[in-house]
Amino acid sequence: GAPRGVPVPPRHFEESMDATTCPRGLVGALRARELGRSPAKRSRLLPPHGGAGQGVPARSDTAASSGSALSFSPHGFRGTATGMRRGLAAWPAVSPLKHECHQRPRQFEYNPHRSEWMVYGTLNGEVCVVNHETGNVVGQAQSVGAPHSILGLCWCNTDSSKLIAGTDSGAIQLFDVDKMRPPDCPSGTSRGRQPRGWAGGARRPSIYTYDAFEQLTSVHINCTDDYFLASGYSNHVGMYDLRTGKTLQTFKDLHREHINVLKFANHSPTVFATSSFDRDIKMWDLRQPMHKPLYTASSDRGNVMVCFSPDDHFLLSSAVDNEVRQHLASDGRLHTKFNLDATGSMHNYTRSYYMNGSDYVISGSCEENTVHICCARTGRRLRDVTLEGRGMHSSLYVQSLRAHPTADFEFSVLMAYNSVTSKSEIAKVSLLESADVAAPGRPRVAPQTMRVAGLGG
């Protein structure tokens, strides 16, 4: 009989662009090749009606049978496969976060280990933990020195019930969610069990109040929960012992201008990155002398924030007015520059995060009401989600955003309004669910209040 290898090349390779046995458009084939996909037996990369951005790059059946993912990272295979089967909704579902707290949120973070939990801090210094899937309030607490805006939030990595919160006045506290009061309890009461393995006063949601870091803007805990860093409207960084409450050190003059956001690596307890409005992002290692960074990468405009990819292979920087870049975390070389349209405003502060592991990037700016969704591998802008709230849509803007830590193609947006009479709110967006289909217990924003623009290749 014929050798087994004879029929393999025709099934998985093609001699030329027009010699494929799988009917598909030329644009789809080019995009597949750009993304590194096998040309055989793939789903269409463009929707049937011709709108670009509707489909999701898929892996081949051969990869599916062998269990090997051909997507950008191992984190993104499940999301890619899900998108391949279902396709992105033409009108994604937008669900306002419904809960019993009625404060104005200023910052929020998903719990990476209990993904149904979300913490948000308010303009009045309230820290509120909610189950964003049910709308129930898990607990809430008041920060010291309130009213002051909560600007820094970070969950612990080894204990999913603890988090730190920092205010713009510089106050930093470690909270235990198990000891936060439920919404129907007065502020002097408590709930829950004793904390395990942590020092501090019993029956209080705040375990430690750390030394203040003046004009704080960012806090972040290392992956082993040994210590955390704080930055703010200065070019210094404060280092604290998370478990004892002591200030360990202040690193002076790490940048020429103030350090807006800093982040520890996800898998190294000593490596962290800083972003500054001096247009530089810098990589540091606490094991090395702090007078010189491991490397420096520069942007054209001031940097608003920086974050690591989940696998720590990349560093994502966001500078003023939609300047988003992805660097190799190993040496800072530029890997991808995302071509997002600039508005010309020097106050259009941009924030970007990874979604579906390291496969996609979501980006929003504080003078726009649009979230851009890009392929992290190619930099291609796949889709825009434009949110419209109460009144004129031009008064709404994206203050912050985060991708869901486990659910694919889901993210939340903190929407704020230019009008002082309008309250900021958090909205959850699911790209796989349609706004036309109402799920029980999940209110939907009407399609006419949300626009989606698909951008093709």
Automatic annotation (TrEMBL):
Keywords: WD repeat. WD repeats lie at residues 252-287. This is Anaphase-promoting complex subunit 4 WD40 domain-containing protein. Residues 1-10 have a biased composition (Pro residues). Gene3D superfamilies: YVTN repeat-like/Quinoprotein amine dehydrogenase (2.130.10.10). Pfam families: WD40. GO terms for cellular component: Cul4-RING E3 ubiquitin ligase complex. Residues 62-71 have a biased composition (Polar residues). Residues 1-20, 36-77 are annotated as: Disordered. The keyword Translocase does not apply. It comes from the Eukaryota. One of its GO terms (biological process) is cellular response to UV-B. Coiled coil: none annotated.
